[in-house]
Automatic annotation (TrEMBL):
Name the record gives this protein: Ribonucleotide monophosphatase NagD
Membership in a protein family: Belongs to the HAD-like hydrolase superfamily.
Transcription regulation is among the record's keywords: no
Gene: nagD
EC supergroup of this enzyme: hydrolase
Cofactors that this protein relies on: Mg(2+)
Taxon lineage: Bacteria, Pseudomonadati, Kiritimatiellota, Kiritimatiellia, Kiritimatiellales
Active site per the UniProt annotation: 12, 14
Stored SUPFAM superfamilies: HAD-like
Pfam assignment, any one: Hydrolase_like
tRNA processing among keywords: no
Domain of life of the native organism: Bacteria
EC code: 3.1.3.5
Binding annotation for Mg(2+): 12, 14, 208
Length: 259
């Protein structure tokens, strides 16, 4: 099945739709094509910083009209996973309000003394004291959770540290490896398909990273589309033992003749 025949699209955001506050070329045409053709679509992001409502508002500021129901974040995936493991549990969080609010919504409380989990996501309020305290809690028995394994993320000025980088000092200090709930975790992909309302055979996943988006799609049996507007470049393809189904310059090419 060609891309144009797919019923549903799961699409990454950072490096695909925008870089920071810069809307990427072709994003508006892609979204309009989805709406005009009546396709199901879900924006699936490994970022845990913003809630679906905040992401909707951000896209609106950039000129795209997308309701909050079309977003699923790694913060939501993290909260759902922890709720299934430890109903009514507690967390010490290094992250932004999007993550904290998702955990609250799932029935978790914030505990800085004796939490069940230490949860780490992207944040600008990252410092030595918080890392030291998080490591001490893990050494006392708290389980370490990362919202996603991304080491870097795209921004207007280039690459910036992401959760994988921020959680590494805690792993090294405590000697405990984190469990990551975002892409390419199959749990997040199953939740995304359920929310999208499409079977995997009817769906394509669009992303800018070989190590999360593309491998997530391959392992979930979903058609994969790598766009070269974010982290992974065409030259990077030789570094991986797997290949995307399609390689395009950007999302604006998805409904083009080559797709």
């Amino acid at each position: 099945m060609k891309l144009t025949g797919k019923k549903g699209f799961i699409c990454d955001m950072d490096g695909v739709i925008y870089h920071g506050d810069l809307l990427l070329s072709g994003a508006q045409d892609f979204l309009q094509a989805l709406k005009d053709r009546g396709r199901h679509y879900l924006f699936l992001t490994n970022s845990s910083q913003r809630s679906p409502r905040e992401l909707s508002e951000k896209l609106r500021r950039l000129g795209l009209d997308v309701d909050a129901e079309h977003f699923y974040t790694s913060a939501m995936a993290t909260a759902a996973f922890l709720a299934s493991q430890c109903e009514g549990g507690s967390c010490y969080v290094i992250g932004e309000p999007g993550l904290t609010n998702a955990l609250y919504d799932a029935g978790f409380s914030i505990d800085e003394v004796c939490p069940d989990y230490v949860v780490v996501g992207e944040t600008g309020s990252y410092n030595y004291e918080r890392v030291r305290h998080a490591a001490s809690l893990v050494l006392k028995g708290a389980r370490l959770i990362g919202t996603n394994p991304d080491v870097t993320g795209p921004a207007e000025g280039g690459l910036v540290p992401a959760t994988g980088s921020l959680i590494a000092p805690i792993e090294m200090t405590s000697g405990r490896k984190a469990y990551f709930t975002g892409k390419p975790n199959p749990l997040m992909m199953r939740s995304a398909l359920k929310k999208l309302g499409c079977r995997r055979e009817e769906t394509a996943i669009v992303g800018d990273r070989m190590d999360t988006d593309i491998i997530a799609g391959i392992e979930a049996g979903i058609e994969t589309v790598l766009v070269l507007s974010g982290v992974s470049s065409r030259e990077d393809l030789q570094n991986y033992p797997y290949r995307p189904g399609h390689v395009l310059e950007g999302v604006g090419d998805i409904f083009g003749p080559e797709a």
